[in-house]
Amino acid sequence: MNEQTPDLKNRHPPALLAWSVWGLGACLYLIAFFHRVAPAVFTDQLMSEFSLGAAALGNLSAFYFYAYVAMQIPTGILADRYGPRRVLAAGAGVATLGSLLFAMAPSFAWAAGGRLLIGASVAVGFVSMMKLASHWFDPRQFAFATGMALLMGVVGGVIGGVPLRLLVEAFGWRAVMGATAVVSAALCVATWSLVRDDPAERGYLGHGSLAHHEPTPVLRGIVEVLSYRNSWLLSLAPIGFSGCVLTFAGLWGVPWLRQVYNLDAAHAVVITSTLLVSWAVSGPLLGSASQRLGRRKPLYIVSSMAALAGWAAVIYLALPLPLLVVVLAFTGFASGGLIIGFAWAKESVPLRLMGTAAGVCNMGPLIGGMLLQPGVGWVLDRCWAGTFFNGVRLYDAAAWQAGFTLMFVSACLSLTALLFAQESYCKQAV
Hints:
Elements: H1 15-37, H2 43-49, H3 54-82, H4 84-103, H5 108-122, H6 124-136, H7 142-159, H8 162-171, H9 173-194, H10 218-226, H11 229-260, H12 265-293, H13 297-316, H14 321-335, H15 338-347, H16 354-382, E1 387-389, E2 392-394, H17 397-418
Antiparallel strand pairs: 1-2
Helix pairs in contact: 1-5, 1-6, 1-7, 1-9, 3-4, 3-5, 3-6, 3-16, 4-5, 4-6, 4-9, 6-7, 6-16, 7-12, 7-15, 8-9, 11-12, 11-15, 11-16, 11-17, 12-14, 12-15, 13-14, 13-15, 13-17, 15-16, 16-17
């Protein structure tokens, strides 16, 4: 009888179990992405209710990014030292409090505090999820898992589009934001109950168990990660391309479409969601393609050049609406190439530093949103002609083009940084 009983310690976990554990971790990233883009749906209400101009609205949205970016390196360290299960559960719990604070905020300051708390808490999602992937999945699946992470995130972004708009129209933005607190609380309980840091805790053989390593001291770990050139180059590279997507789809795309193309809010949200969906679809595809190619750099550069061309067309060519939708879908797909950078960054450092490296690398995409959302708003206010409609500032096409030029310049700089990164050939550094 014993001879017929499989020795689980010599077997890797079944795919269903691995994806289930990873999927619960990915749910916090889904919530993170939802909060990241949600303000775009009710910009008018925020501007009217808190008496905000474009720069102030950009700052309110960016408070999420300020905290998110600041938490990336600490999150990597915490995930390396204490495990993703504890970090994810704590993040979901604090996100509950932040969502409640934002929903009940009586003023700009309280709303900003809620956004800050949300950003700090959900910041643990991506790095912890990648930490789970390094233990529960074969290394050859890591790039695909990273792409699936983007897909999960953008599902949250899509929920924060048309569905959120419908819910806001029916119940108001405060009630809907309050409901997200309930979802976060449920996720906190589920994560603590079901997620495990390594398959060994379920009796299986892990793919990346680090139990034989002594924990790297915090400061030394950061210094060691940053001593690898790819760590900071692959953090700079996504600033422009992710920043463009997050700035357009996460805040300014909807008001731009409404004011320049005279669309209603519902249609504008659908179009920005198209950008996010194409971005999500491309992540797993481009990540897997780079794995099959056996190289990271060529596909990342080609996709980045395509994204840069797409943003140039959107910003400077005054495209007719049907063609604009096509170009935005193409641009979103090409922008998904940044997913390659996460697997590339992980391969560029020893596996014991994976959590810290992921935190460093994940700062780039969020720095883009952190800088560009208020930056575009600042330029809009500088170019504002003084026109109001229902208490909301109106900006002409020239003002929008000037603001979006910041996006184009940042994408150019990001592509330049990418050119200097060293190829890993899809092999893990030791």
